[in-house]
Structure formats: C-alpha cells, structure tokens
Amino acid sequence: MKIEKLDHLVLNVKDIPTTCRFYSEVLGMKVITFDDTRKALSFGQQKINLHQKGHEYEPKALYPTPGSADLCLVTKTPLTEVIEQGPIEKHGALGKIISIYLRDPDQNLIEISNYQ
Fold first, then answer.
1. Contact residues for 79 (Cβ-Cβ < 8 A; gap 6+)
2. Residue 100 · residue 82 · CB < 8 Å
3. Were 101 and a residue from 3, 85, 113, 114 both cysteine, which residue would form a disulfide, CB within 3.0 to 4.6 Å?
4. Whole-structure pTM value
5. What are 13-32's pLDDT values in tens digits?
6. Maximum Cα interatomic distance, the chain, rounded to a whole number of Å
7. Residue 9's pLDDT is what?
8. Which residue among 56, 81, 89, 111 is the active-site one?
9. d(CA 25, CA 102)
C-alpha cells in the first residue's frame, strides 16, 4: 500500500459550535453539515470532522481527548497576521517552511506555515 493524500481527520472537541466559530472566523474554513447532523470544517480538498466529547461516532480513537491534536496547516496569508509563537523555520512534507503557532478553543496546537 502507498498512501496518496490525507482526505480528512477527526478532531475531538468540548464544544462543536465554539470550535466551528474559531476555525471559520479565525482560519477561514467552511463549516459543513453531513449525515444530517454531523459537523466538519472544510478547506481545499480536505476536511476535519468534529466529534463532541462524550458523543463520539464509532469507530473512534482509543482515547478521544480534546486538546491532544497538533496540526500543521499551510496558508498564503503572511504569518505576521496570525500568532502565538513564531515565525520559526521548520521542515514540512515538501521542504522548508516558516511556521507560527496558535491554539484553538480546546488548546490544540495549530501550526500555520508558508512554504519558502
């Protein structure tokens, strides 16, 4: 098997509406509803499915925990417009990146990067 790309990932959160507001207002992601009631965050050709703590969908992570994620997202927006820490030079999947860090409402670490 050879993995081609990431389709979606699941983010376990304390409060779905709060998470939706943060990711849509701060990071510009689109909030979508699927399977009638489930929420996800859409960007590019990927999405982040949201699981409410205590009401996760099966199958689920062995230890679904809000605040345990560490995500790196790539943007063309200058990094000085966002920030908790950075800019810092790092290594992304395709080469050198400059990254900044911020936290979402569940305190997940969000890395936002520009490729050099």
1. 86, 87, 98, 99, 100, 112, 113, 114
2. yes
3. 85
4. 0.82
5. 999 999 999 999 989 999 99
6. 42
7. 94
8. 111
9. 14
Query: In what helix (H) or strand (E) does residue 21 lie, and over which residues does it extend?
Result: helix 16-25
CATH of domain 8-115: 3.10.180.10
Please confirm, yes or no, whether 25 is among the known catalytic residues: no
Strands 38-43 and 46-52: antiparallel
Give the Cα separation of 114 and 81 in Å (integer): 12
Tokens of 96: 């050198």
Query: Tokens representing 53?
Result: 């703590």
The total number of residues written for the chain in this structure: 116
CA dist 41 and 62 (Å) reads 22
The tens digit of pLDDT for each residue in 37-57 reads 999 999 999 999 999 999 998
Token duo for residue 20 = 């939706």
Other C-beta atoms lying within 10 Å of the C-beta of residue 98: 17
